[in-house]
Amino acid sequence: MRIKKQIMDAEGVRRALTRIAHEIVERNKGTEGLVLLGIRTRGVPLAERIARKISIIEGTMPPVGYVDITLYRDDLTYFEEKPPAAQTKVNVPITDSKVILVDDVLFTGRTIRAAMDAVIDWGRPQCIQLAVLVDRGHRELPIRADYVGKNVPTSHRENIAVVLEEVDNEPDQALITESGH
């Protein structure tokens, strides 16, 4: 894999998350009933950052949890052994909540479908919305993001790599990478 282009630097990531936070508050008319759930791994710190930004805007921070989709993946039959499940943490009732799923990159939609299955196992939300830092296209399922930091059309040879300080111990950025085939 080689880095082809930086599409967001740390400031670009910060601005995108600030805009997403404002859009979430506007669309949901405040924070009442909101629950942010980050999809492990990079969706978790993104959800926490968005929640902090919402608390600055509204004066109240929505609860934040995280969801592990490992056991909900539709490709588990390809593994000889089931991969170990990480954890899901939801400390508030999901039923009748407005759940905002947060992830770093939206690609085929399969991760989001798995996350929705996991959420519904926890309760019946009023609605599920999706916030992503980067939407790269190439959907295989009819899923779209409600809040997008940046739309980046990519080829199938390209990937999007999101680097976050909390996970990677490097400055935030989003990169287009390309396989060497």
TrEMBL record:
It is an enzyme of class 2 (transferase). The keyword Zinc-finger does not apply. GO terms for molecular function: RNA binding; uracil phosphoribosyltransferase activity. A motif (PRPP-binding) lies at residues 99-111. It comes from the Bacteria. Its EC number is 2.4.2.9. The keyword Transit peptide does not apply. It catalyses: UMP + diphosphate = 5-phospho-alpha-D-ribose 1-diphosphate + uracil. GO terms for biological process: DNA-templated transcription termination. Residues 5-155 form the Phosphoribosyltransferase domain. Homodimer and homohexamer; in equilibrium. PANTHER family: BIFUNCTIONAL PROTEIN PYRR. Also displays a weak uracil phosphoribosyltransferase activity which is not physiologically significant. Regulates transcriptional attenuation of the pyrimidine nucleotide (pyr) operon by binding in a uridine-dependent manner to specific sites on pyr mRNA. This disrupts an antiterminator hairpin in the RNA and favors formation of a downstream transcription terminator, leading to a reduced expression of downstream genes. Belongs to the purine/pyrimidine phosphoribosyltransferase family. PyrR subfamily. HAMAP family: PyrR. This is Bifunctional protein PyrR. It comes from Dethiobacter alkaliphilus AHT 1.
